[in-house]
Amino acid sequence: MSHLPPPAGPSNRGGPVATSAPAGSVLPSAGSPAGRGGTALVTGASSGIGAAVARRLAAEEGWRLVLNGRDVTRLEQVAAPLDALALPADLTRPGADRLLTDLVLDHAGRLDLLVASAGVGWAGDFTGMPRARVDEIVGVDLLATLHLVGALLPHMVAAGSGRIVLIGSVAGSVAVRGEAVYSAAKAGLAAFADALRYELRGTGVGVSHVIPGAVDTPFFARRGVPYTRAWPRPVPPERVADAVWTAVRHGQDEVYVPGWLRFPARVRGVAPGLYRRLAARFG
Questions:
Q1: Considering its fold, how many domains does the chain have in total?
Q2: Distance CA 75, CA 55 (A)
């Protein structure tokens, strides 16, 4: 594995950006519109939804995968059997978004699909939340994605095709007790998806917002509090990956996983007072 110097900046907690390609793998110099194969970059691919998305795309013909994550070992374990290029990096580090963009374009020539699935959480009352965790959640779940999209998007627009898939959360649609900052970050991502979609109309670049509820991944263990609700039951990450593929293939703007989650979001939009009373009572 060859290591590149880290971007300038005070933080280096994610380690240096590195490149690693399985022996014999070849990335194309050009791609095709998203949904018909090409080059795809998946962030947060070392586990959970990101890893499931990588495997789902690998099952479709015509895709060459570039995978990003902060855990080098786990990322390599996901990438190796998929013949994917692994680019470990902590995207909250200053300049990491531009360096990752340069690496992807140097290897592939263009990018047809970005699936931004990196995310972290924290559960508990906001008054007891450490400030460092506030900064981490907003940095990973919102700012890092905005910066990466900002670095990649001009190249997609210049090519006249491509798709950006943002992995949100139902917490961003209806807000969840005990997850104030996570809800705020995901709500920001939802607004970004809508605003960016309007801006990109006519460019050939689409934006999809995939909105899962609870997903059976290590996310809950890493946030420090396990998922204890009897309902709704967590869905497997493969179900979210299927929704991502559906959104890419059919150019869908917004997909809830499972689909019934769109109804509480709509109730909140149409009758916010009623929704808040129900949420206060039933959590």
A1: 1
A2: 12
Output the domain CATH number for residue 139.
3.40.50.720
pLDDT values of the chain reduced to their tens digit, one per residue, 283 residues: 333 334 333 333 334 444 444 433 333 333 345 567 899 999 999 999 999 999 999 999 899 999 999 999 999 999 999 999 999 999 999 999 999 999 999 999 999 999 999 999 888 899 999 999 999 999 999 999 999 999 999 999 999 999 999 999 998 888 888 899 999 999 999 999 999 999 999 999 999 999 998 887 666 667 667 666 666 787 899 999 999 999 999 999 999 998 777 766 676 666 666 556 656 655 5
Q: Print the domain residue range for 250.
A: 2-282
Catalytic residue numbers read: 182
Q: Which residues contact 258 (CB under 8 A, 6 or more apart)?
A: 213, 232, 235, 239
What is the reported pTM? Answer: 0.82
What b/e sequence results for 95-116 when a residue is b if at least 16 CB atoms lie within 10 Å of its CB, and e otherwise? Answer: ebbebbbebbeebbebbbbbbb
Q: 3-class DSSP state for residue 211?
A: strand
